[in-house]
Amino acid sequence: MWDYSAKVMDHFRHPRNVGEIDNPDAVGEIGNIVCGDALKLTLKIDRSTEKILDAKFQTFGCGSAIASSSALTEMIKGKTLDEASKITNKDIADYLDGLPEEKMHCSVMGMEALEAAINNYRGITTSSRQRPEGEKIICRCFGVTDRKIAQVIEMNNLTAVDQVTNYTKAGGGCGQCRPQIEAILAEILKKEREKKQSLLRKKMTNLERIRLIQETLEKEIRPYLQADGGDLELVDIDGHTVYIRLIGTCQSCPSMDFTIETFISQKLRQVLHEDIEAKKVEE
Hints:
By secondary structure, the chain is of the alpha+beta class. Helices cover about 45% and strands about 20% of the residues. The protein folds into three domains: about 1-130, Alpha-Beta Complex (Sufe protein. Chain: A), CATH 3.90.1010.10; about 130-205, BFD-like [2Fe-2S]-binding domain (Arc Repressor Mutant, subunit A), CATH 1.10.10.1100; about 205-280, Fe-S cluster assembly (FSCA) (GMP Synthetase, Chain A, domain 3, 2-Layer Sandwich), CATH 3.30.300. Mean pLDDT is about 85; it is low at about 125-130.
């Protein structure tokens, strides 16, 4: 049984703004009954200021879908379209004091219905709306595109396929699309790591970098070597190459090359977040 907040239960039991606005200025429809969740959002808008005067919803779904839709209408009334367009699914969940992760797709549905309504008001249709070239359906069971999957991963800092399923339903049907979801996730996480590495390289001076290499060798590598009667000496640092001399039992160890190329080099890469290589110096 999921643990719902008091605010979720209140909006489920006493939903606000249920129904449909007569002659609405904007309509946003998301999902379908066949897939289990559907939401229709209608808005009344002041055309001179683009302020949302009223918002109503009709939804077919679970208690979280009802609560998320109800919360969304309360959040957007009184806001301009530009202000409302900045509302994310996380904002909806936070407004409700949180949602179970398995129900986060309900908040995503609300965000998408709002986006669809704003596009409808501004005359941006599905066929004319600009999309990344090559956008395609990944999950055929629930009609989820690669664009939506990528957007939700980036917006919510997701790191696992099961999380993507919780937020989008993608992969929750036949499961055949899970390898594709995993590939999208891996690519986004890779770009995020590269971005962080780039920032670290820009922020770190050469002296700071050398000091970090020395500290890593001293505190995280030497103790392991010394435990087996070995040790190392730092000889030089040239660009991305760290020259070291192995001493003690490490000199004659048959795993010496593995120790340098795998253990030492990988440890340095983990700390410095860059392509760095340790090389041995012969006596």
